[in-house]
Amino acid sequence: MAAYCRDWCDTIAPQTTRDTSAAHYRWLLDRYVLPYLGHLRLEDLTRRAGRRTAAEAPELRILR
Fold first, then answer.
1. Looking at residue 31, what DSSP letter applies?
2. Dihedral of alpha carbons 6, 10, 15, 17, sign
3. Nearest 5°: CA angle at 25, between 30 and 62?
4. d(Cα 35, Cα 48) in Å, to the nearest integer?
5. Are 38 and 62 within 8 A, CB to CB?
6. Distance CA 9, CA 16 (A)
7. pLDDT at 3
8. 56 confidence band (pLDDT: 50, 70, 90)
9. Whole-prediction pTM
10. pLDDT tens per residue, range 5-32
11. Cα→Cα distances 63→11, 15, Å
């Protein structure tokens, strides 16, 4: 998942959002999402995995 997210931030986001938005998305991913979910393969990312991770990582509550 980490590789996909970083690729999206580097290629798609700059074409479809403002530069500041793309940079903010990258920061959010790097700070809050990828440390907890980046190791998962995309096909393994489920609601259950997200909820379990959110329960284990209180700082992810801002993303709800």
1. I
2. positive
3. 75
4. 17
5. no
6. 10
7. 93
8. confident
9. 0.69
10. 999 999 999 999 999 999 999 998 998 8
11. 23, 24
* C-alpha–C-alpha distance, residues 45 and 41, integer Å: 7
Within 8 A by CB and 6+ apart from 42, the residues are 1, 4
Q: Are 32 and 63 in contact, with CB atoms under 8 Å apart?
A: yes
For 35-52, write each residue's pLDDT tens digit: 888 888 888 888 877 777
Nearby residues of 24 by Cβ (< 8 Å), 6 or more positions away: none
Whats the size of the chain, residue-wise?
A: 64
Residue type, 19: D
> Can you read off the two tokens belonging to residue 27?
């920061």
